[in-house]
Amino acid sequence: MQTVELLPGVTTERTVREVWRRLSDAGLPSQAAHRHPTNRPHLTLATADTLVPEVLVRLRYELAALPVPLRLDGTVRFAGRTPVLAWAVRPDEALLRLHEAVWRTLRDAPAGGRLNPIHAPERWKPHITLARGRHAACPGAPLFSATPGGPADVLTGQWVRARTYDSVVRSASPLGV
């Protein structure tokens, strides 16, 4: 399976990694424990069986819209085989348009194989994963506050780059200009 992912700017990445560290320091599951070199804060736009070269060309065209605004706002928990604690991404129009364009590009390329339906525009729940596992839970205190007295667990920034991740060979490659 191959993904199309957005990467946040340096400040946002640093902040998410700090949240990972805080969760770990509290003895909670955290993405900080995932030591693979490709592990970094990201937003998955779509996954497909494969990304053929002509699709990569089309994706680069769509991803020329970067950077786009980023807003993390509150935590969300996903139940399932592996529960997930995540920082919710509140998409604006630019992010929604970009996601739709990436989805449409992959959907219209039959050589790419099956798409994961959880990333379909009508079902997509944009987020940055903070922790995975049975005990992934939100600590009682806010994970982050941008400014003293400011709203807890809210962060703004930009999605600045894109990459693909290949889950078979466990490698990431830059995608875009």
Automatic annotation (TrEMBL):
Pfam family, one: 2_5_RNA_ligase2
Alphabetical list of Gene3D superfamilies matching this protein: Cyclic phosphodiesterase
Name recorded for this polypeptide: 2'-5' RNA ligase family protein
Organism encoding this protein: Streptomyces dioscori
